[in-house]
Amino acid sequence: MAFNDFNMDSHWLPFTPNRDFKRQPRVFTAADGMMFTTHDGKQVIDGISSLWCVGAGHNRKPINEAIKKQLDTLDYATAFQASNDQAFLAAEKIAAMAPGDLNKVLFCNSGSEAADTSLKVALAYHRARGEGHRNVFIGRERGYHGVGFGGMSVGGIPGNRKVFGSAFLPRVDHMRFTHDPVNNAYIHNQEPVFGEDLLLELEQRILPLHDPSNVAAIIVEPVAGSAGWYLPPKGYLKRLREICDKHGILLIFDEVITGFGRMGTNFAADYYGVVPDMLNFAKCVTNGVIPLGGVICRDKLYDAMMKTDTPQHVVEFFHGYTYSGHPVACAAAIATLDIYQKEGLFQRAGEMGKVLGDAFHSTFKGLPNVIGIRSLGLAAAVELAPIAGSPGKRAYEIFLDCFQKGALVRPAGDVLVIAPPYIVEKQHIDKLVNTLADAVKAHA
Ligand SMILES: Cc1ncc(COP(=O)(O)O)c(C=O)c1O
Fold first, then answer.
1. Which one of 58, 115, 376, 389 has the lowest number of neighbouring Cβ atoms within 10 Å?
2. Distance in angstroms (rounded) separating the CA atoms of residues 72 and 113
3. Atom of ligand 1 nearest to the CA of 110
4. Cβ(257) – ligand 1 distance below 6 Å
């Protein structure tokens, strides 16, 4: 199919430079395993699990079959005042995978909705316990929690915030970004050790400023994914948990990227041995085939909200989406999680992550403009010096170049990330890394 075979006037592409896209469209028409086919017949390796979603690789028959079966059985049913069997089964499976007493799953359809849902749970929980004054949220610089007004407010990626600040939540603060580009530029499958204690700022400035008794929740990505795979300092998440416990503040892990295998474990919470009060998920839960997200809550959140004086017929939590727990999405999730388990794909992600990390560090170190390399789990990032006056341009052009040569990689500012499906083989890693390295050299 040639690109002038379809009309590109109507589709406004998300998070994409639309004008430039139309000059050189990149349109997928089929996918299988690790590979895409494009509109002009090119084969492209999916080096980013299609935005971190496709853990088991494309076109997995058991998932497709589960969806078809579900469509023929129960296509959709109202999510309010009734439910469907698949939602209960999927919730049970997801809760069983989550650590500690993260046992109650609130479904939604995306990571953005998960972020807003978790913030609303925090407010409602504190109010149910008679602490309605707890309404300050704390996020972190360079954090990404989607594009809803709640998620944007606690998020910290400047480009995503710039235009919308007038509509942010009013009581939000941000902790410092966790990267040290001087001492921790190169990190290979280990936790960076910081000379200074980054959380002193939270304890000594942010919490006293708002008074800890007013703080509802702190939300962080365990590993900052969208910003460019930035790893937390050693002990950071454990200490954050302790600070939250000390002050009765809820801790939310946004595991939309780190959840369901990317770290080689079920969740980053398992990897770091820290149980949050809420865990947001979305990507990888259905292998990308149907939107599904959710928030896994500790029992105490649910219990507090059920302990209410209101009559039995009154809704306890005024929140939900028409498609919360959609039966087809839940059937896809059940089939996806089965595949991950049967094929040991999370363990494989951890093993192949070492191969990817080794390839990154041995290939990119010393190449022109490379100022950092980070690898952990099945994801690795190479950070480049920006072109003076044109931040992001170098990485964008490298991304375009790689695409032309058959490798889909992800530009994030001047960072390039590779985070392939867990089924990735060494030959794919070699092709992805070599193509990226050639492009880095070509754009020196
Ligand atoms: C950590 C995190 N939270 C939330 C989101 C938003 O998810 P969605 O695009 O499904 O709304 C993303 C998306 O990349 C993410 O990485």
1. 389
2. 28
3. 10
4. yes
